[in-house]
């Protein structure tokens, strides 16, 4: 980590040091572009002890993955500072204002600021998230296969989650919580029955934890259902304020507002790319790394052609 970076213009500033940001920085560094990564150190998958589904890195701890990534980008002269970007303005190039350090200039910008997961307000859920309270069966399903699952409904869309997790366990209880059974369609109910998912109405009051392990889900009426895993649907909160301040066109989705981008991650703001969970709720680590790579490759071509065109015109 370089804490003494200068104030002169960088070719690219990457905002965010997760999989997307580090992947972009690696490609940019190898392309001989002066690059700065500004990392606030708040990765989305920090609560998890392992990450899955990334070929050759399956089961690796997220912190180890990021540490290796930081080592790799340093080999190519990429600078990294632990700080937070508070403002970005544009007057030709970009001025990137940091919370603790000096403002820097950038010719191009990669926004890889991710998102935050807002947990359902049920006692015990936030504390156990990433352990036996989970959100993604592709991330954790194999590790908890065949255990008794619970699924906490946060909306009628949670039916999809309850159906999906039945691929990993045939003992699934769907707690409707604050969702009325009337909100579920007839097709929803028939699919749940076909999957063998038990539907339980009534609000969930708390989780039952014994010896630091989830053992059950207690309803407001006092009824307790024995469960060792609970899947939840966190409310995603995209960290896209920088993009919005720059005037990027946003697309409203059921999972938040995300920037309109092209196939490389270029936003509607010239010179600004986005990658990782800053572009969508369902980007996994492998997708984020791929998106960072695509954005960086596009930036390399963009900077090259811009320089050549300036030379031709000059």
Automatic annotation (TrEMBL):
Residues 10-290 form the FAD/NAD(P)-binding domain. It catalyses: [thioredoxin]-dithiol + NADP(+) = [thioredoxin]-disulfide + NADPH + H(+). Pfam families: Pyr_redox_2 (PF07992). The keyword Phosphoprotein does not apply. The keyword Flavoprotein applies. Keywords: Flavoprotein, Oxidoreductase. PANTHER family: THIOREDOXIN REDUCTASE 1-RELATED-RELATED (PTHR48105). This is NAD(P)/FAD-dependent oxidoreductase. It comes from Streptomyces atrovirens.
């Amino acid at each position: 980590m370089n804490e003494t970076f200068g104030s002169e213009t960088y070719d690219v500033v990457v905002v965010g040091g997760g999989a997307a940001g580090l992947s972009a920085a690696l490609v940019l560094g190898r392309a001989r572009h002066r690059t700065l990564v500004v990392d606030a150190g708040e990765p989305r998958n920090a609560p998890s002890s392992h990450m899955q589904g990334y070929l050759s890195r399956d089961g690796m701890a997220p912190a180890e993955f990021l540490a290796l990534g930081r080592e790799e980008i340093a080999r190519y002269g990429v600078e990294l500072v632990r700080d937070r970007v508070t403002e970005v303005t544009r007057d030709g190039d970009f001025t990137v204002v940091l919370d603790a350090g000096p403002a820097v200039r950038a010719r191009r910008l990669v926004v890889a600021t991710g998102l935050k997961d807002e947990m359902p307000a049920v006692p015990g859920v936030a504390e156990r998230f990433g352990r036996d309270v989970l959100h993604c069966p592709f991330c954790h399903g194999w590790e908890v296969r065949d255990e008794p699952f619970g699924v906490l409904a946060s909306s009628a869309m949670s039916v999809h989650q309850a159906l999906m997790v039945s691929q990993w366990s045939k003992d699934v209880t769907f707690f409707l919580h604050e969702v009325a059974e009337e909100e579920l369609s007839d097709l929803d109910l028939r699919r749940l029955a076909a999957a063998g998912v038990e539907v339980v109405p009534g609000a969930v009051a708390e989780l039952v934890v014994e010896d630091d392990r989830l053992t059950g889900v207690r309803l407001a009426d006092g009824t307790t259902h024995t469960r060792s895993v609970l899947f939840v649907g966190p409310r995603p909160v995209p960290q896209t304020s920088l993009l919005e301040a720059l005037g990027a066109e946003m697309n409203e989705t059921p999972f938040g507002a995300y920037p309109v981008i092209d196939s490389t991650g270029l936003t509607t703001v010239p010179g600004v790319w986005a990658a990782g969970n800053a572009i969508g709720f369902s980007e996994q680590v492998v997708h984020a790394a791929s998106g960072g790579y695509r954005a960086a490759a596009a930036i390399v071509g963009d900077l090259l052609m811009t320089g050549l065109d300036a030379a031709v015109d000059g």
